[in-house]
């Protein structure tokens, strides 16, 4: 079964002061780190959704895997998730693991634990104690529903709350803290 990785990296990073895809972190840009985490975990392919500063990101990170530009990035993460899933619809991927660019503490081991439950009908999230978080796996059977509910900065949140989701503990191997300010 083929599982694709999907990095959402389109935002302008208003609170941060610059697009987070361009933020250096431990020798690499956050966007390179996120894509590398999904590749290291074993995703068959990785697609990065860009938006704000897309040309600068591509120039600064020429080693990125496939990229898609979300022209509606300013409307929020939901449009980037829709753009990414639309790009994956033409592939043979049975599921997609979604990772946000600003969560460098999510490890390849956490992604592997989520991947172990992949399937077209799967909905899986990482568990951090009582909290649910990234990485998130969306089985292909759910892509249309996720896309229909993804608005503003809510992404898949409403869809996941309305459906049965398997939560896989990853807090011992990952940190889901997002980088919002400098």
Automatic annotation (TrEMBL):
Question: Which domain of life does this protein belong to?
Answer: Bacteria
SUPFAM superfamilies listed in its UniProt record: Nucleotide-diphospho-sugar transferases
- UniProt-recorded Gene Ontology molecular function terms: nucleotidyltransferase activity
Q: Could you tell me which residue ranges the MobA-like NTP transferase domain spans? A: 5-163
The record ties this protein, via Pfam families, to: NTP_transf_3
Query: PANTHER family under this entry?
Result: MOLYBDENUM COFACTOR CYTIDYLYLTRANSFERASE (PTHR43777:SF1)
This chain belongs to the protein called Nicotine blue oxidoreductase
Native source organism of the sequence: Actinoplanes xinjiangensis
């Amino acid at each position: 079964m083929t599982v694709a990785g999907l990095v959402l990296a389109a935002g302008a990073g208003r609170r941060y002061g610059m697009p987070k895809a361009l933020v250096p972190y431990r020798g690499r840009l956050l966007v390179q780190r996120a894509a590398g985490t999904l590749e290291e975990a074993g995703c068959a392919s990785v697609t990065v959704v860009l938006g704000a500063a897309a040309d600068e990101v591509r120039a600064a990170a020429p080693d990125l895997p496939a990229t898609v530009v979300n022209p509606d990035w300013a409307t929020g993460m939901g449009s980037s998730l829709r753009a990414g899933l639309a790009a994956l619809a033409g592939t043979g991927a049975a599921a997609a693991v979604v990772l946000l660019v600003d969560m460098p503490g999510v490890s390849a081991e956490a992604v592997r634990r989520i991947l172990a439950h992949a399937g077209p009908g799967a909905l899986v999230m990482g568990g951090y104690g009582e909290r649910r978080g990234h990485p998130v796996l969306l089985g292909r059977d759910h892509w249309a529903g996720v896309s229909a509910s993804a608005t503003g900065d809510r992404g898949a949140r409403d869809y996941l709350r309305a459906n049965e989701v398997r939560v896989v503990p990853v807090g011992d191997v990952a940190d889901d803290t997002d980088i919002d300010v400098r």
